[in-house]
Structures are given as C-alpha cells and as structure tokens.
Write a structure and sequence with these properties.
Strand content: 15-25%
Number of strands: 15
Number of helices: 10
Radius of gyration: 22 Å
Order of helices and strands: EEEHEEHEHHHHEEHHEHEEEEEEH
Distance between the termini: 18 Å
Structural class: alpha+beta
Shape: globular
Helix content: 25-40%
Length: 446
C-alpha cells in the first residue's frame, strides 16, 4: 500500500528496483519482470499543499533513443535527388523532405462496439454519435513534419522530418490548451467555415517561422539549452521544459506552465505562480523583454491583469522499465476522462504520438509522421488551415505497446478547475493504491 507523505510517495518497489538509467537493480528479486510501483508511477505522484520545492528543471528523458525511424512512406518524387554536399545532417534530412506518408494505407475505422470512447474529457458513443466523435477529433490542431521552411538558425535544416515528431506533439498539446483558453473545450472546427480571429492567432503561434513564439525554430533552438542539438530527437520531459521556457515570452496567451519533478505537484507553488503578478523589473523580466523585442512578437494590448493565470500542467512519468507495467493501465486511462485533460505525449522508441483518448484497451492518437509543405499566413492574417486538421479516422494502438516514458497534460483555466483536478487525483489515487496493493498480494501469492 502506498503512503502519502511530505513530498514523497513510498511503497512497494520505490526507486530501489530502478537503477540510475532506468535499468533494473540486480538485488531486487522481481526487478527483471516487474517495473517498480513508486515515485515514478502513474497517479502515484504526490499532490501536496506545501513542502520542500522540487529540484530544478532538466530531468532526464527516459524514452529510448536512437536512429530515426521512417515509418510508412513513399519514395522521393521522380527527378528530386539528394544533395550529397550538404553535410551528414542534411544528407539524412533530405531523405525525408519529399516523402509523404500515405494515410489511406493504414487508417482504420472505429469498430462497432457499445464501449464508450473518451476524447480529452468528453465521452462519445459510437452507436449514437459517431459523427460528433469525428468532429471532436478533427477540431484538434494537427501538427506534422513540414518541409521548405526557412533554415533553422539561418544555416540549419529546412525540414524537421525524421527528428521533430516529439516537438510537433508538444505543439499539439499546447495548441489544445490555447484552444481551451480562448475558444473553449467544446469549440468545433468545420472545413471552409469562417473562424474567429482568436483561432487564426493561435494558429499563427505555431507556424514554421522564426518569429512565431512556438514554431519549430523556437523549440529546436530552445532545446539547445536542454542539451539537445538542433536536429536531435527530443523526449517528453525535454519538450515540456522547452514549452515552459517559451511560455515566459508569450504575453498574449499568458499561460503559467508547471512541469512536475519527481512526480510531485506542489499545490502551494502552483497557486503562487498562477496568482502572482509579473515583475516590472528584474533579470527575468528584462530577458523576456529583450527576447520579445528581438523577435518582434506582438504584445497583449490589454496587458496583464490581476487574477488567476491559466495553468498548463505537464507531468512527465515513467510507467515501467522497458515496457509499460499493466498495473498502470486503468489509472492511465482515467486521466483521459478528467475534464482538464490535454492528453499525453509518448509513443514508441523514436516515434512520438499525441494521445487524445482511448477505446477499450486501445489508445487514440494523432500522428505527426506526415511530411507537408510549409504554410504561411495570408496578408489579412488568416491561415489556410486545412492541413492543420486531421480529417480522417485517427490512429489507434494497444496500450501495452506504449513506451513507458510519457508526459500527461492538463489545463486549468480557473482556480476552481485546478482545485477540482486536485480532488479528482486524490480520489482516484486512493482507488489506484488499493488496486496496486491487491496486485502485489496476488503476485506474491502466486
């Protein structure tokens, strides 16, 4: 049985069965067969009122890394050849720049079933409202690989194909938070329908331009400070840290981004962060001002106002060693039912996906592994947005095929939303701990 304590969660398998790099300890009898249930476990994270602050940002990403995987692609267009003189990185990227994933080859329709489908806190029934389900999914902003944008840093890659999938997933999670913040969770997108100015302004934040606050350029360059070279694959935690830093320079959306460390969410710290007014002086404010001025980003005409700053809460988690532990599955699915849910970042080794819900024991996700051409905004400020919405049935995968390194996302527009989230976590954590206790009793008995 897990025990809630001041800033730490103790229980069976806490930390002792996991080595420094996520490898099982040789001293633990079940280390090879059963990942630990402890501080890194789902809903085993501590929601505490006060206490010692978490350590500084920059925790390790545990997702496996290696050479990028291509996925299902067609050969480069006829007549387009690789440039052999552009260096090793450009040589690799050029193999991806003109490749387009064929969606129709592997997209599946939803099966006929009575089981409910959960999408970012909303429940759908396939037998009665399948069309509403598909509209709900298509309303999510879909960011994929792009090509032919301006070189990152002036001389870097002009495509993120093969390495930018986790960055695109991070963009999708953040975009969903901005949609909830400005348009509401129940906002729907329809093809060729005129959308409000806030929608186009959100979309412009993510275009592949160096002067857009959450562009691939900004994320890749900010990742250098997290130890990631431009063109290197990111993990969930690194993307979370990058988004946290970039949000400091975004005055219009004015989000408070909190990335939990050691599975600990400190309520007092979050409330201080969301209620505090921006400083008019100091190094942090000066740095942000210089950064915004250099990029030419627009400031919020209304300025900052007193009140709760909308919260983007990201919780990186480790759900096993090499594979997800089955004991976490139900708790993981419960997170998609919460009304504050922004889904999860994760996937398979070197293949990142943005998970938005589930059906039974299958996760529903948006896949960034499609290479499309760069899209810029029009003279009137609008964006041709058809390529930013997935208009076909989404992908599904078995939960047990998920890489154990994930990051959960939640959005709390008001303080009452955060209080409600804390209450839900505490209740579901108690239920989860009792299930874990029974699981280990059965395991020990057998």
């Amino acid at each position: 049985m897990l025990t809630l304590r001041q800033g730490r969660c103790f229980g069976p398998g806490t930390g002792q069965s996991e080595g420094r790099r996520g490898q099982p300890s040789q001293s633990h009898p079940q280390a090879r067969s059963s990942p630990p249930v402890g501080p890194r476990g789902l809903l085993g994270f501590v929601v505490q009122q006060a206490g010692r602050r978490c350590r500084a940002a920059g925790g390790r990403d545990y997702t496996s890394q290696g050479a990028p995987r291509r996925g299902r692609v067609v050969s480069p267009c006829r007549g387009e050849e690789e440039d052999g003189d552009s260096g090793r990185m450009e040589s690799v990227l050029s193999r991806y720049e003109n490749q387009i994933t064929i969606l129709s080859d592997y997209l599946e329709e939803f099966p006929e079933t009575d089981e409910p489908v959960w999408i970012l806190g909303r429940q759908h029934h396939l037998n009665t409202d399948k069309s509403k389900l598909l509209l709900d999914i298509s309303a999510r902003l879909w960011f994929t690989y792009r090509r032919k944008f301006s070189p990152i840093g002036g001389t870097g890659p002009s495509s993120d194909a093969g390495w930018g999938c986790m960055l695109r997933c991070g963009q999708m999670m953040l975009a969903q938070a901005l949609i909830c913040r400005h348009l509401g969770r129940d906002w729907q997108w329809e093809k060729h329908k005129k959308q409000p100015e806030e929608y186009h302004r959100i979309l412009r934040c993510f275009l592949d331009r160096k002067d857009c606050c959450y562009s691939i350029h900004q994320m890749a360059q900010m990742g250098v400070g997290e130890g990631k070279s431009i063109g290197e694959w990111f993990g969930p935690n690194t993307v979370a840290q990058v988004l946290k830093k970039l949000a400091l320079f975004d005055e219009w959306n004015s989000l408070a981004v909190y990335v939990s460390m050691d599975n600990t969410v400190v309520i007092e710290d979050i409330k201080k962060m969301c209620w505090s007014l921006p400083q008019s002086s100091g190094a942090a404010h000066s740095s942000a001002h210089v950064h915004r001025s250099a990029l030419g980003w627009n400031k919020n005409a209304a300025g900052f106002c007193a009140g709760w700053k909308p919260l983007l809460l990201i919780i990186p988690l480790r759900l096993g060693i090499n594979h997800i532990n089955p004991v976490y599955i139900d708790a993981f699915k419960e997170c998609f039912k919460m009304p504050q849910s922004l889904g999860a970042l994760g996937g398979k080794p070197n293949n990142a996906y943005y998970f938005i819900g589930f059906l039974g024991n299958e996760l529903i996700y948006l896949d960034p592994h499609t290479t499309q051409s760069f899209v810029d905004w029009e003279e009137n400020g609008t964006v041709d947005d058809e390529s930013f919405h997935c208009q076909q049935a989404p992908h599904r995968m078995k939960i047990m095929n998920l890489d154990p390194s994930v990051a959960l996302g939640f959005f709390c527009k008001e303080e009452c939303d955060f209080d409600n989230w804390c209450s839900l976590v505490q209740k579901r954590r108690m239920h989860y701990c009792s299930r874990v206790s029974r699981y280990y009793q059965i395991a020990n008995w057998s």
